[in-house]
Structures are given as structure tokens and as C-alpha cells.
Amino acid sequence: MSRSLYKGPYVDERLLKKIEGKKPEEAGVIKTWARAAMISPEMVGFKFGVHNGKDHIEVSVTEEMVGHRLGEFSTTKKFVRHGGKMQKELEQKKKEAEIAAAKAAKAAG
Fold first, then answer.
1. Per-residue pLDDT for 31 more than 80?
2. Averaged pLDDT of the chain
3. Cys-Cys link to 59, which of 21, 36, 51, 73 (CB 3.0-4.6 A)?
4. b/e 89-98 (16+ beta carbons within 10 angstroms → b)
5. Domain ranges for the chain
6. Nearest Cα to 43, choosing from 34, 51, 54, 53?
């Protein structure tokens, strides 16, 4: 959701206080729970530990990230592979084929 233009961007004041007067190299990782905070130009170079609901994911802020929100770079869902017994069998066959191809290439070379 975009914010009304007259309100301006939402930047967490406590987050700005934490980086105020510090250099990115000496600040270390700054832990935060403010996933909705907009990334401002003052934050470039700093490393933030953005909470994803379970633990803090380290996010290094670059110039391309300005204008986005911190939460966009700390995913909250973990992808679990689909498949099962069939998928494991297919992967095993693929792995065996790769090994056989590598052995054939080694014997030819």
C-alpha cells in the first residue's frame, strides 16, 4: 500500500536515532523489528538485522534499496520442497546420470 503524499514516507524515528552520528563500518548489525520502515538515503551502507517473526535476517542496505521497505528484504516464509518418494527417485537418477557422464568424459579425456 502506498502512503499519501502529504503524509510523507514512514521512517522509524528510533531507527534513525540508532544510526545518527555513526559510520556504517563501525556500527555493526543494528537489530530492528520495524519491517514497515522506509529505507532512506541516510541508511545506505548500514547493516540491519530485520526480524522475520523468528529471528533477525541481516540486510545490507545499498543505493538501489532506497524507497523500499526493510521487510521486503527479510522473507517471512520458508520454501519447503514439494515432492516425496517420487521426487527423491528422480533426483537420484539425475545424480547418477551426471556421475556417469563425468566418468565418461574423464575416460575420454
1. yes
2. 89
3. 73
4. eeeeeeeeee
5. 13-73, 79-109
6. 34
Task: Give the predicted TM-score (pTM) of the model.
Answer: 0.67
Fold exhibited by the domain 13-73: 30s Ribosomal Protein S19; Chain A (3.30.860)
CA-atom Rg of the chain in angstroms: 22
Beta carbons of 32 and 49 less than 8 angstroms apart:
yes
Which residues, including other chains, have CB under 8 Å from residue 74's CB and lie 6 or more apart?
35, 50, 51, 52, 57, 59
- The type of residue at 45 is G
The predicted structure's pLDDT at residue 44: 92
Tally of residues, the chain: 109
